[in-house]
Amino acid sequence: MTSTITAEAQADPLNALSPSLRRLVRAIDRFTLRTGQLVSWLTVPMVFSLCYEVVSRKFLGQATMWSYDVTYMLYGSLFMLAAGFTLLRREHIRTDFFYARWPVRTQALVDVLAYLLVFFPSMAFFLWKGTEMAVHSWQLRELSEASPWRPPLYPFRTVLPVGSALLMVQGISEFLKAVAAARTGRWPE
Protein backbone atom coordinates (compact mmCIF):
# COMPACT_ATOMS: atom_id res chain seq x y z
CA MET A 1 0.00 0.00 0.00
CA THR A 2 2.77 2.43 0.93
CA SER A 3 4.69 1.76 -2.29
CA THR A 4 1.50 2.43 -4.31
CA ILE A 5 0.97 5.77 -2.55
CA THR A 6 4.62 6.66 -3.11
CA ALA A 7 4.35 5.75 -6.80
CA GLU A 8 1.17 7.82 -7.11
CA ALA A 9 2.85 10.73 -5.34
CA GLN A 10 5.80 10.44 -7.72
CA ALA A 11 3.40 10.57 -10.69
CA ASP A 12 1.62 13.62 -9.25
CA PRO A 13 3.04 15.19 -6.08
CA LEU A 14 -0.46 16.45 -5.18
CA ASN A 15 -1.35 12.81 -4.48
CA ALA A 16 0.56 13.28 -1.21
CA LEU A 17 -2.43 15.38 -0.10
CA SER A 18 -5.85 14.07 0.85
CA PRO A 19 -8.42 13.90 -1.98
CA SER A 20 -10.35 16.86 -0.55
CA LEU A 21 -7.18 19.00 -0.41
CA ARG A 22 -6.29 18.00 -3.99
CA ARG A 23 -9.77 19.06 -5.12
CA LEU A 24 -9.36 22.34 -3.19
CA VAL A 25 -5.99 23.08 -4.83
CA ARG A 26 -7.37 22.37 -8.30
CA ALA A 27 -10.54 24.42 -7.66
CA ILE A 28 -8.54 27.39 -6.38
CA ASP A 29 -6.16 27.20 -9.33
CA ARG A 30 -9.07 27.10 -11.81
CA PHE A 31 -10.75 30.03 -10.05
CA THR A 32 -7.52 32.05 -10.05
CA LEU A 33 -6.88 31.26 -13.72
CA ARG A 34 -10.39 32.44 -14.67
CA THR A 35 -10.10 35.54 -12.48
CA GLY A 36 -6.73 36.40 -14.03
CA GLN A 37 -8.14 36.00 -17.53
CA LEU A 38 -11.10 38.22 -16.67
CA VAL A 39 -8.99 40.90 -14.96
CA SER A 40 -6.58 40.98 -17.91
CA TRP A 41 -9.33 42.69 -19.89
CA LEU A 42 -8.71 45.84 -17.83
CA THR A 43 -5.74 46.44 -20.12
CA VAL A 44 -8.09 47.24 -23.02
CA PRO A 45 -9.73 50.36 -21.52
CA MET A 46 -6.39 51.33 -19.96
CA VAL A 47 -4.63 51.28 -23.33
CA PHE A 48 -7.59 53.06 -24.94
CA SER A 49 -7.39 55.80 -22.30
CA LEU A 50 -3.65 56.25 -22.83
CA CYS A 51 -3.94 56.29 -26.62
CA TYR A 52 -6.83 58.73 -26.51
CA GLU A 53 -4.80 61.05 -24.30
CA VAL A 54 -1.77 60.91 -26.60
CA VAL A 55 -3.84 61.59 -29.73
CA SER A 56 -5.83 64.33 -28.02
CA ARG A 57 -2.73 66.03 -26.63
CA LYS A 58 -0.33 65.65 -29.57
CA PHE A 59 -2.63 65.97 -32.56
CA LEU A 60 -5.58 67.98 -31.28
CA GLY A 61 -3.63 70.15 -28.83
CA GLN A 62 -6.10 69.41 -26.06
CA ALA A 63 -5.27 67.29 -23.03
CA THR A 64 -7.97 65.36 -21.21
CA MET A 65 -8.88 65.84 -17.57
CA TRP A 66 -9.83 62.23 -17.00
CA SER A 67 -7.20 60.09 -18.74
CA TYR A 68 -4.55 60.13 -16.00
CA ASP A 69 -7.07 59.18 -13.30
CA VAL A 70 -8.63 56.41 -15.38
CA THR A 71 -5.20 55.04 -16.29
CA TYR A 72 -3.78 54.89 -12.77
CA MET A 73 -6.99 53.43 -11.38
CA LEU A 74 -7.13 50.74 -14.07
CA TYR A 75 -3.43 49.95 -13.74
CA GLY A 76 -3.64 49.79 -9.94
CA SER A 77 -6.70 47.56 -10.20
CA LEU A 78 -4.98 45.31 -12.72
CA PHE A 79 -1.88 45.10 -10.53
CA MET A 80 -3.81 44.18 -7.37
CA LEU A 81 -6.49 41.96 -8.86
CA ALA A 82 -4.00 39.93 -10.94
CA ALA A 83 -1.59 39.31 -8.05
CA GLY A 84 -3.15 35.89 -7.31
CA PHE A 85 -2.87 34.96 -10.99
CA THR A 86 0.79 36.02 -10.92
CA LEU A 87 1.35 33.81 -7.87
CA LEU A 88 -0.32 30.89 -9.65
CA ARG A 89 2.06 31.37 -12.58
CA ARG A 90 5.06 31.65 -10.18
CA GLU A 91 5.98 35.00 -11.70
CA HIS A 92 6.38 37.06 -8.55
CA ILE A 93 9.84 38.45 -8.00
CA ARG A 94 11.96 36.41 -5.64
CA THR A 95 15.64 36.19 -4.83
CA ASP A 96 16.70 32.81 -6.13
CA PHE A 97 20.43 33.04 -5.50
CA PHE A 98 20.35 30.47 -2.69
CA TYR A 99 16.84 29.10 -3.11
CA ALA A 100 17.41 27.74 -6.64
CA ARG A 101 20.40 25.69 -5.42
CA TRP A 102 18.50 24.01 -2.58
CA PRO A 103 16.87 20.58 -2.88
CA VAL A 104 13.12 20.66 -3.54
CA ARG A 105 12.28 19.55 -0.01
CA THR A 106 14.30 22.43 1.46
CA GLN A 107 12.67 24.91 -0.95
CA ALA A 108 9.25 23.57 0.01
CA LEU A 109 9.95 23.79 3.75
CA VAL A 110 11.17 27.38 3.35
CA ASP A 111 8.00 28.17 1.37
CA VAL A 112 5.77 26.53 4.00
CA LEU A 113 7.41 28.62 6.73
CA ALA A 114 7.31 31.79 4.63
CA TYR A 115 3.60 31.32 3.93
CA LEU A 116 2.83 30.69 7.59
CA LEU A 117 5.06 33.38 9.12
CA VAL A 118 5.02 36.15 6.49
CA PHE A 119 2.52 35.70 3.66
CA PHE A 120 -0.69 34.84 5.51
CA PRO A 121 -0.20 37.40 8.31
CA SER A 122 0.64 40.10 5.74
CA MET A 123 -2.34 39.30 3.56
CA ALA A 124 -4.63 39.20 6.61
CA PHE A 125 -3.35 42.66 7.58
CA PHE A 126 -3.89 44.06 4.05
CA LEU A 127 -7.35 42.50 3.94
CA TRP A 128 -8.29 43.95 7.34
CA LYS A 129 -6.88 47.45 6.79
CA GLY A 130 -7.95 47.55 3.14
CA THR A 131 -11.50 46.62 4.12
CA GLU A 132 -11.54 49.36 6.76
CA MET A 133 -10.27 51.88 4.20
CA ALA A 134 -12.76 50.78 1.54
CA VAL A 135 -15.74 50.85 3.92
CA HIS A 136 -14.76 54.33 5.10
CA SER A 137 -14.36 55.52 1.51
CA TRP A 138 -17.79 54.13 0.55
CA GLN A 139 -19.37 55.79 3.59
CA LEU A 140 -17.89 59.14 2.57
CA ARG A 141 -18.49 58.59 -1.14
CA GLU A 142 -14.88 59.74 -1.39
CA LEU A 143 -13.84 61.75 -4.44
CA SER A 144 -10.33 62.46 -5.66
CA GLU A 145 -8.96 65.77 -4.40
CA ALA A 146 -5.94 65.63 -6.72
CA SER A 147 -7.86 66.01 -9.95
CA PRO A 148 -10.17 68.72 -11.28
CA TRP A 149 -12.36 65.93 -12.65
CA ARG A 150 -12.78 64.55 -9.08
CA PRO A 151 -13.57 60.92 -9.93
CA PRO A 152 -15.01 58.67 -7.22
CA LEU A 153 -12.31 56.81 -5.31
CA TYR A 154 -14.46 54.33 -3.37
CA PRO A 155 -14.57 51.66 -6.13
CA PHE A 156 -10.79 51.96 -6.51
CA ARG A 157 -10.28 51.71 -2.73
CA THR A 158 -12.21 48.42 -2.81
CA VAL A 159 -9.56 46.87 -5.02
CA LEU A 160 -7.06 46.49 -2.14
CA PRO A 161 -9.15 44.15 0.01
CA VAL A 162 -10.50 42.25 -3.00
CA GLY A 163 -7.00 41.81 -4.43
CA SER A 164 -5.67 40.79 -1.02
CA ALA A 165 -8.44 38.20 -0.68
CA LEU A 166 -7.73 36.80 -4.16
CA LEU A 167 -4.01 36.63 -3.38
CA MET A 168 -4.67 34.95 -0.02
CA VAL A 169 -6.91 32.33 -1.65
CA GLN A 170 -4.20 31.48 -4.18
CA GLY A 171 -1.69 31.47 -1.32
CA ILE A 172 -3.67 28.63 0.26
CA SER A 173 -3.21 26.60 -2.92
CA GLU A 174 0.50 27.42 -3.12
CA PHE A 175 0.96 26.55 0.56
CA LEU A 176 -0.66 23.14 -0.01
CA LYS A 177 1.54 22.58 -3.08
CA ALA A 178 4.60 23.35 -0.93
CA VAL A 179 3.39 20.82 1.66
CA ALA A 180 3.06 18.23 -1.12
CA ALA A 181 6.53 19.09 -2.43
CA ALA A 182 7.99 18.78 1.08
CA ARG A 183 6.49 15.29 1.33
CA THR A 184 7.44 14.03 -2.15
CA GLY A 185 10.55 15.99 -3.11
CA ARG A 186 8.88 17.16 -6.35
CA TRP A 187 6.94 20.31 -7.19
CA PRO A 188 3.44 19.80 -8.58
CA GLU A 189 3.07 20.97 -12.15
What are the SSEs and their pairings?
Layout: H1 2-11, H2 19-39, H3 43-58, H4 67-81, H5 83-88, H6 104-140, H7 154-184
Report on the structure:
- The chain is mainly alpha-helical and 189 residues long.
- It has one domain (2-89, 98-184).
- The protein contains seven helices and no strands.
- It has helices at residues 2-11, 19-39, 43-58, 67-81, 83-88, 104-140, 154-184.
- The longest helix is centred in the middle third of the chain and has 37 residues, at 104-140.
- It is elongated.
Structural class: mainly alpha
Radius of gyration: 21 Å
User: What is the helix tally?
Assistant: 7
Largest sheet descriptor: none
The low-confidence parts are none
Shape: elongated
Q: Could you tell me the strand content as a percent range?
A: under 5%
In total, the number of strands is: 0
Helical content stands at: over 70%
Integer tally of domains: 1
Order of helices and strands: HHHHHHH
Task: Note the gap between the termini.
Answer: 24 Å
Mean pLDDT: 93
